[in-house]
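User: C-alpha cells in, sequence out, please.
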C-alpha cells in the first residue's frame, strides 16, 4: 500500500497505528487482530484497508516510525558539536536508549526483519522496509568513513566493512538477548556499563587516534536520553517516517 500523501490521510494513519501499538502492548504481536484495529480506532474496515492490506503492513509501519534512523537526524541537529568518535557509536547507543523506552520497538524490529514475515507485506511496504534497514547500516558505516577522511581512524575498506558488521551484529545480538529475558544473570548482564565495555573493545580493536572510551559513551547516552524524553525524539509519526524515507543515506539526513 502506498503511504498517505494528504494531511487528513496522515492523521488517520497515525490514529490507526497508535491504536495498533496499544493493542500489541496489551495483547502481544501474535494475538492482536487486524480487523479489531478498525473498531478500536473508530474507523470502518474499508478505511483500514485503504491504508493497510494486512496485519503485516501495520507491523512494518509501526517498526518504521519507531526506527532510530527517523530520529537520529534531529538529535544531530540539536547536538552539532558531536565529535567523530561520538558519531561513530551514535547509532548503537541511540537504539539501546530507544529500546529502554519502548520494548515494543525491539519486538517489532525482530518480527519485521524476519523474511518469513516481511514477505507477506505489500510491495510498497517491503520496499520502504528494505530502504530503511540499509539506511540504518549507512548510519553505522558513514561516520566510520568520515573518521578515516578526517584522519581519526586508520582503516582500509575491508576493515571498515568488518567493523560495520561487528557493530551491527553486536547490536542485534545484544538487543535480542536482553529482550528475550531467558538468560540467567551469570550469562548475561544487562546494564549500560557492560554494553559500553563491549562496544569499546569492538571499536578499539581498530586503529583510532583517540580510543572510544566508556566515559564518552556514558555522556553521549545521557544526552540521547534527554533528547528522547524531552526533545524532537519523542515524535513517532507518519510524518517523521515519510521525511526519513526521502533520504538515501544518513549523510543526506544530517
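Assistant: Sequence out:
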Amino acid at each position: 500500500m502506498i503511504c498517505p500523501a494528504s494531511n487528513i490521510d496522515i492523521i488517520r494513519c497515525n490514529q490507526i497505528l497508535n491504536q495498533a501499538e496499544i493493542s500489541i502492548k496489551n495483547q502481544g504481536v501474535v494475538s492482536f487482530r487486524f480487523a479489531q484495529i478498525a473498531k478500536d480506532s473508530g474507523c470502518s474496515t474499508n478505511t483500514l484497508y485503504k491504508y493497510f492490506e494486512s496485519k503485516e503492513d501495520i507491523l512494518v509501519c509501526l517498526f518504521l516510525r519507531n526506527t532510530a534512523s527517523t530520529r537520529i537526524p534531529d538529535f544531530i541537529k540539536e547536538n552539532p558539536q558531536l565529535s567523530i568518535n561520538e558519531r561513530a557509536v551514535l547509532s548503537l547507543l541511540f537504539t539501546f536508549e530507544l529500546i529502554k523506552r519502548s520494548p515494543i520497538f525491539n519486538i517489532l524490529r525482530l518480527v519485521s526483519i524476519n523474511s518469513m514475515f516481511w514477505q507477506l507485506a505489500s510491495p510498497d511496504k517491503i520496499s520502504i522496509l528494505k530502504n530503511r534497514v540499509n539506511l540504518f547500516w549507512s548510519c553505522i558505516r558513514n561516520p566510520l568513513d568520515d573518521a578515516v577522511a578526517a584522519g581519526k581512524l586508520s582503516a582500509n575498506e575491508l576493515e571498515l566493512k568488518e567493523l560495520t558488521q561487528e557493530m551491527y551484529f553486536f547490536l542485534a545480538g545484544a538487543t535480542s538477548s536482553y529482550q528475550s529475558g531467558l538468560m540467567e544473570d551469570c550469562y548475561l548482564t544487562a546494564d549500560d556499563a557492560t554494553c559500553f565495555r563491549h562496544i569499546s573493545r569492538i571499536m578499539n580493536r581498530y586503529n583510532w587516534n583517540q580510543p572510544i572510551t566508556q566515559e564518552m559513551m556514558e555522556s553521549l547516552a545521557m544526552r540521547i536520553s534527554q533528547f528522547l524524553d524531552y526533545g524532537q525524539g519523542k515524535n513517532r509519526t507518519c510524518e517523521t517516517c515519510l521525511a526519513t524515507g526521502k533520504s538515501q543515506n544518513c549523510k543526506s539526513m544530517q
